[in-house]
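Look at one record.

>
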Amino acid sequence: MRLPWEAPMDVYEAIEKRRTIRFFKKGATEEQLRRIILAGSKAPSGGNSQPWEFIVIDDPDVIEQLGELKHQLNKTFKPGPGQTQQDVEERALSQKKGFANASVVAVCTTQGQSSAGWLAVENMSLAAVADGLGSNIISYWDEPKKEVEKLIGLPEGYQLTCVLKFGVPEAEVAPPPATARIQLAP
């Protein structure tokens, strides 16, 4: 986390440093969550409709159920090339364990406005980086998505965009592998 007297992180630096973090030492502070949610609320939306709701989930039983639903959903994946069903099960279990020590926020939008929700998700993920935190986007679909919506008490007329996890990364975050850079003409 940056201290008040330190210069704020440049947006390009935040983009470069953003990583998907799967395991956390501890969740975000209440103040960090406030800033992250505020950043989400500043995302663009058609006609400035701001069609989102952010639900902070702090009930450990609900968080555990979210992890279990993701675990069950990911167990349905078919093994990829060179993978076994055991590999799929281990990855699915890893998704469940990744909810431990995380702060959890459901990002929801009014029906038909999910693209605005994804813009909010990006703002929130970048704000987490600026606060020295990691984030992880968790998607649900089909019946598990409906179960999550019921579990979190989603108001009628809203749909789940995703669940975000935030926190202090459990391990040092490695820089990304070198990638091709776009060269802009002068």
Remarks:
- The first helix runs from residue 11 to 17.
- Residues 110 and 158 are 4 Å apart (CA to CA).
